[in-house]
Please model this.
Amino acid sequence: MRMYDCISAKKAGRELPEEVIRYVVKGFTEGTIPDYQMSAFLMAVCLRGMTKAETLALTMAMAESGDMLDLSPIRGRKADKHSTGGVGDKTTLIVGPVVAALGVPVAKMSGRGLGHTGGTIDKLESFPGFAVSLSEQEFFAQVNRIKLAVMAQTANLAPADKKIYALRDVTATVDSMPLIASSIMSKKLAAGADVIVLDVKAGSGAFMKTKEDAAALAEEMVEIGNGAGRQTCAVVTDMNQPLGCCVGNILEVKEAIGALHGRGAEDLMEASLALAAQMLVGAGRAADYESGWKLAEGALKDGSAFEKFCEFIEAQGGDASFARDPEKFPRAAAALEVRAEQDGFIRSMQTEEIGMASLLLGAGRETKESRIDLTAGIRMCVKLGDCVSKGDVLAVLFAGDESKAAAARARLLPAIEIGEKPENRNGHVLKIIR
Ligand code: URA
Model:
């Protein structure tokens, strides 16, 4: 087989057999296929797309390029969730404890990630002492004991995806439906859960800008998951504004603690309950979505989800007194209010730009080597449709110094559009794909 022919066939729009896709993935991962040929291949996929069979083959080849985690030492049906990435998304911190409090095992591997804030792992490290590098045995034992553990993604989880993603990132080949679907699903399949619930974001802060594209991506991923023998479903959620109010690590942890007490923004609660409900149904703990939702709500109301969160923080060496008294978390050195420059209604938000403002504040990583400022971030004081007067506070920016806050303000202010009339708003959950 020659890589030249594989590129040529894809360029002509032909369907590639599974063995060809496996040859490409293996060759590139092992270094026998060079970057320039793989780049051409990826661009051909971007322009020509892939059939469902090709996408499944690509996913399996990437998943099997490294360790396939065997979660069978954990009792019960293991549930996992994954978000395609959005601004202010802290749902894992809420959904994990809710579902675990109801007896469903959640064995979650999380990445650190690049972007406007840290990943779940970084957020959890806001708790002094919290350890994320568990051995497999410790991970399994903790889930068996308390139903919830989160560990850092091992280096050998879908290494082919890691290498391919790095190339996509610099060759303008990220935004391809089959490449995104296979990238995400390869890691999920390798992580071993029986039940996978996907949160596919749609809007100005997401890869997929429209509900239709997000639904198509969700359907593709659900098909891959089910095709690989895992019970998979997806919730398409709105990302035309940051989820909840806060963007930034400690700020989001504090917001999640509030949500675990039932005090969260409407969109954050809706997303969390929808995801939890689907995980409960998938794991056989709830008969249907509505009863899953009610069970999840009950776990928030009776305090069991919050207690599970504290137990989980302690089990991984963290100081749970910070969860019981969030005022103990350190605060940023500088705070800057961003005020409305006119009267009107909040008509739209360029959510990606709000994420970039958060990055400028120091809340995220630009490169793998960047250091995160856990105290940095944004507290949004408005949601879409809100009525504001000139001088009202739209957001508060938190940073290590005032110059960062000023730079972020310049990025954030134009990202919030104020108009004369309010827009009609949909609910936060746009579609459920079972
Ligand atoms: N997240 C991933 O893991 N891969 C993609 O391609 C896009 C988002």
